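Sequence, please.
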């Protein structure tokens, strides 16, 4: 009788232990489920040049690795199309250069090399179209006045009377912070001997190297500036704005996911540097590696994927 009682007690303890273990499993599963982001599909795409495509892949793949539902669209258009996409709902996340956003949304506003001042200008403008500007990254890809290495001068003012032939993308010729400012007598007052519209990207460097033009507006992270011996002239009159990259997201999507989404995006932005942009461009533009592969490799190296 006593033996049966002992066995019954052992069985009861085992049952309690199994029940407790089962409860523990449920708790673990509940925690895991609660960390899986739940919200609408986050849709983004790069603008139609390699750096922007890689940046979109970095942010998109990072969010996918975090468990968000993400769709990375085929790259298309430039800033105007990106902001239009945000406005009409085709996109709900864009990664843009904050100075570029200012020139698009407030072209007549004074520019600044201080990213905080630029962010303060664009934040309410994006809010008007239902979007939130998150933290800007330390990574900067600024506008650059680029000439061949044998061109005399170190500042843009130094070449104002040099009669240079000028080349740039079509957008530059419409912007006060680009061709309009360069030729404005109240800013640089440059009298170019010719002007050519070129596709933004490596073709700018090819035209400069072939002496089809003498100066181009390019980006400071173009790897060809170093490999071809070009040089960037100092913007001594402060025409160009700060161009840190920043995620700009639909406020509706941000609210749907809650604070975790902004925290995740800000954490990523904080880890991207200007050297990273230059390295990514070297891979895509010089070594001809696809942007999605460059992004994946970087995220893996950083332990973010």
């Amino acid at each position: 009788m006593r033996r049966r009682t002992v066995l019954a007690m052992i069985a009861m303890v085992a049952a309690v232990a199994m029940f407790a273990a089962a409860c523990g499993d449920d708790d673990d599963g509940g925690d895991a489920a609660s960390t899986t982001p739940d919200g609408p599909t986050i849709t983004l795409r790069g603008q139609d040049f390699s750096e922007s495509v890689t940046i979109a892949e970095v942010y998109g793949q990072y969010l996918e690795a975090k468990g968000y539902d993400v769709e990375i669209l085929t790259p298309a258009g430039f800033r105007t199309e990106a902001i239009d996409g945000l406005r009409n709902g085709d996109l709900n996340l864009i990664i843009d250069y904050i100075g570029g956003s200012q020139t698009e949304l407030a072209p007549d506003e004074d520019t600044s090399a201080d990213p905080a001042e630029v962010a303060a200008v664009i934040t309410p403008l994006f809010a008007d179209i239902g979007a939130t500007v998150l933290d800007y990254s330390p990574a900067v890809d600024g506008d650059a006045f680029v000439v061949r290495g044998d061109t005399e001068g170190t500042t843009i003012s130094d070449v104002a009377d040099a009669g240079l032939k000028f080349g740039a993308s079509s957008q530059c010729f419409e912007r006060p912070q680009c061709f309009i400012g360069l030729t404005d007598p109240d800013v640089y007052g440059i009298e170019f001997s010719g002007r050519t519209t070129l596709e933004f990207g490596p073709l700018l460097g090819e035209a400069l190297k072939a002496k089809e033009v003498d100066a181009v507006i390019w980006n400071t992270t173009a790897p060809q500036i170093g490999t071809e011996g070009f040089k960037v002239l100092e913007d001594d009159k402060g025409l160009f704005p700060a161009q840190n990259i920043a995620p700009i997201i639909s406020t509706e999507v941000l609210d749907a996911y809650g604070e975790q989404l902004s925290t995740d995006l800000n954490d990523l932005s904080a880890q991207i540097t200007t050297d990273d942009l230059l390295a990514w461009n070297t891979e895509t533009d010089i070594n001809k590696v696809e942007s999605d592969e460059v992004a994946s490799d970087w995220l893996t190296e950083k332990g973010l994927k």
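The CA atoms of residues 22 and 165 lie 76 Å apart.
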